[in-house]
Specification:
The protein has 182 residues and is mostly helical. The chain contains 6 helices and no strands. The chain has helices at residues 3-22, 29-53, 59-82, 88-110, 121-138, 143-181. Helix 3 (59-82) runs antiparallel to helix 4. The radius of gyration is 18 Å and the shape is globular. The termini are far apart.
């Protein structure tokens, strides 16, 4: 197993640690959980950078990386919603988007072609905004700023979803065309 995949597995392990810290009775639990989230984010950036720079991309990493991201995203959304830090509609909107991506990605991967749609600028922008919105709550920035950041995050996530759906449709069309030519 290579270093990027180990970093991705570390991110998966950090999810229950985040949840444990977030729901603990520790002083500054939100800040401490936020630090776990930051560590996960740093490991995400590092694993992608190392994998690309040293040509260490693997099929396992291509599948596990978005899985780790989605686990942490759901952990944040669920914990923040249960603690009334964000309204339920944000969990619902982002949750539906993530479920659609998981289903579409699974269909594509487990089809005969084993294709994976890599992240792109839309997905990365949505992720960066999610980090900013989350950290605005962790660091107790003005509530209005956090609300605006989460609203913009939802909008960018919807745009990213539309982009990924278009890519998925193109891949399916191209596959059908190549099957028809055989």
């Amino acid at each position: 197993m290579n270093i990027p995949n180990m970093l991705t597995i570390l991110r998966i392990i950090l999810v229950p640690i985040y949840m444990f810290v977030f729901f603990s009775d520790l002083d500054n639990r939100l800040l401490l959980a936020g630090l776990v989230f930051i560590l996960a984010g740093i490991s995400d950036v590092l694993d992608g950078h190392i994998a690309r720079k040293y040509n260490l991309q693997t099929k396992l990493g291509t599948v596990l990386d978005p899985f780790a991201d989605k686990l942490m995203t759901f952990a944040i959304l669920i914990s923040f919603t249960l603690s009334k830090l964000i309204p339920e509609w944000i969990l619902i909107a982002l949750g539906i988007k993530e479920i659609i991506l998981i289903l579409g990605g699974s269909l594509l991967y487990f089809s005969s072609s084993n294709e994976v749609v890599p992240s792109n600028k839309y997905g990365k922008s949505a992720t960066a905004l999610f980090y900013a919105a989350t950290l605005s709550i962790v660091f107790k920035l003005p509530e209005t700023l956090s609300q605006v950041l989460f609203l913009v995050t939802v909008v960018f996530n919807i745009l990213a979803l539309i982009n990924y759906v278009n890519i998925y449709i193109e891949l399916v069309k191209n596959r059908e065309v190549s099957v028809d030519k055989e």
